[in-house]
Amino acid sequence: MQPGLIFSWYAVRQNWAGSVQPEDGNWIGIYFNRNSLAPPAALGLLAASALLWVVLAHRPKRWIAIGLTLIAVALFDGYLLVRSGSSTSVGAVIVFGLVWLFWTVIRWWQRNKNISPRQILRIGYPTFLFGVVVMTWVGFQFQSSLLNRLGRKIDFNGREVLWRFSWSGFKDKPIIGWGWMSAWRTQNFFSDREFWWALTNNYWSHSAIMDVLLGGGIIGAALLVVAIVWSGARQLGSVCSEISGQWAFAATWFVIAAATQESFIIGNHFMLVLLVSSMIGYQADQNDDSLNKTISPA
């Protein structure tokens, strides 16, 4: 991932064809578009920041040199993220930070109040899920005023038309959907819908959430929600005991947040791999008692 970002910077510096969007100057690098450059840049920034968190907390040998290197990587990737002009990944980074902060507080609570994993499951995890629901509602409820303050278009750069089109298709087949990525390749999907003539060359909804609803219906969406909630519940033990145990939760919701604006998790995109690996998380060997003796202060 990092080599791709370095080559993207080099491509822009050397003025390679297609490395910059001519209409607005946003960077693309060696990727398909700015929203393809931004996710690896954002993930590189977050990974370097998480590693820096660990280094500062534990201060291993040569920690100053390692820390300075990680700061340089974070600044470089952050610069690429900003120059891409992608608000989607910036929003996902904010979500990552909020999730990381929440579970950092839970880790502090667990360490100082000596609460049990069962209490975290009964209190902490439902609170987290409730917070996700509330923040999602607030985000969509006040999206217009927020975008106006940022000087952005209210239609999410034209995606709103695609989302309305997808929602209309979902309502036609709400239970099982049209089949995985089949709707956009089915002629009947375009009949009797507003603006169908402008969307016949599209093959996705520019929102993985919409594509899941459109392709799998309520059943597909329910399975995805169950998988996300279940994966979080099974990682509650490691989130407080492992070094940077917040990563699995934060990375999962980073991908989900980004997937509200792009179809990252419905194809062969690296964000799908990140989502799956984060949901799997780290499962300690139950026979290794040493893993249960130390709680990381980070």
UniProtKB/TrEMBL annotation:
Membrane association type: Multi-pass membrane protein
InterPro entries for this protein: O-antigen_ligase-rel_domated, WaaL-like
Subcellular location(s) of the protein: Membrane
Domain O-antigen ligase-related: 73-225
One GO CC term on file: membrane
Keywords: Membrane, Transmembrane, Transmembrane helix
Protein name: Unannotated protein
